[in-house]
Amino acid sequence: MKLENIKKICVKCSAKCCYLDGPVVTKAEKRRILKAGFEDVFAPAGKYYYVKHKGGKCSFLRNNLCSVQSAKPLMCKIWPVYPVFKGKERRFMIFDCPLTPHLSKADIRKLEMQSKRLPKEVVIDAIANLSPAATKRLNRFNWEKRFKEALK
Questions:
Q1: Per-residue pLDDT tens digits for 8-55
Q2: What are the C-alpha distances in Å from 30 to residues 15, 110, 128?
Q3: What is the pTM (predicted TM-score) of this model?
Q4: Domain spans, the chain
Q5: What is the spatial distance between Cα 125 and Cα 4, in angstroms, rounded to a whole number?
Q6: Could you read off the pLDDT of 26-37 as tens digits, one per residue?
Q7: In this structure, are residues 34 and 78 in contact, taking their beta carbons and an 8 Å threshold?
């Protein structure tokens, strides 16, 4: 799907996925974002970094669009696909997002392939450290239902 079409859907949706406390990023992603000239809004979290947020809103969200599009973190690029783990097996859930019905099977497969580059620790850390407010906002995307389906 073309980026311009994705942007239109995100603006119309008010970029609700960007109100989930900000993504977890790797050291390489942090360097890439800073090298591209964006502000340092990162908080260390062990081996990884959180993008700081205000009231759950990602610091890089501007007018319902990602301001770091050119250096966007992988966790954001793969949305609405999200990896989950059953033991060592990596599976995928697809969030109920306004973008989802517009994605072809090939688009989803491509996002699943890209998500394989996301370290398991980042995936687990991102979910484990959501604030209660972000967890509640995540319910907009039917995450509990999709999570259970992915683990069947």
A1: 999 999 999 999 888 999 999 999 999 999 999 999 988 899 999 988
A2: 22, 23, 20
A3: 0.89
A4: 3-150
A5: 31
A6: 999 999 999 999
A7: no
Q: Which long-range contacts (CB under 8 A, 24 or more apart) does 117-121 make?
A: 117/74, 118/74, 118/75, 118/78, 118/83, 119/26, 120/83, 120/85, 120/90, 121/47, 121/48
